Amino acid sequence: MTKAQAKPLEIVKRNDLTPICCHCAKGLTEIYSRTKGTGFVEGKDVIYFCPHCMKVLGIGQSRMI
Ligand SMILES: [Zn+2]
């Protein structure tokens, strides 16, 4: 019985690879983002979405720049 060695997760930067949309399987050379809400609360939640199918890829928190 082999004990799996706990290896730290390695993050490899690969700017030569293109991520693929999990919805329409098209290559993402760019990702659209927009902030939820308008006006004075703008810039809290950012929605990232696919420029091809407009489906949401993820929601993040943006620090007010
Ligand atoms: Zn898509």
Structure overview:
By secondary structure, the chain is an all-beta fold. It has a domain of 30 residues. 0% of the residues lie in helices and 23% in strands. The mean pLDDT is 84. Bound molecules: zinc ion (ZN). Zinc ion (ZN) binds next to loops.
Layout of SSEs?
Blueprint: E1 32-35, E2 45-49, E3 56-61
How would you concisely characterize the structure shown here?
This protein has 65 residues and is mostly beta strands. Helices cover 0% and strands 23% of the residues. The protein has no helices and three strands.
Give helix % range: under 10%
| Physical arrangement of strands within the biggest beta sheet | 1-2-3
| Class derived from helix and strand content | mainly beta
Number of helices: 0
The count of strands amounts to 3
Distance between the termini: 52 Å
Q: What are the secondary-structure elements, in order, as H or E? A: EEE
Assembly of the depicted chains: single chain
Task: Tell me what portion of residues adopts beta-strand conformation.
Answer: 15-25%
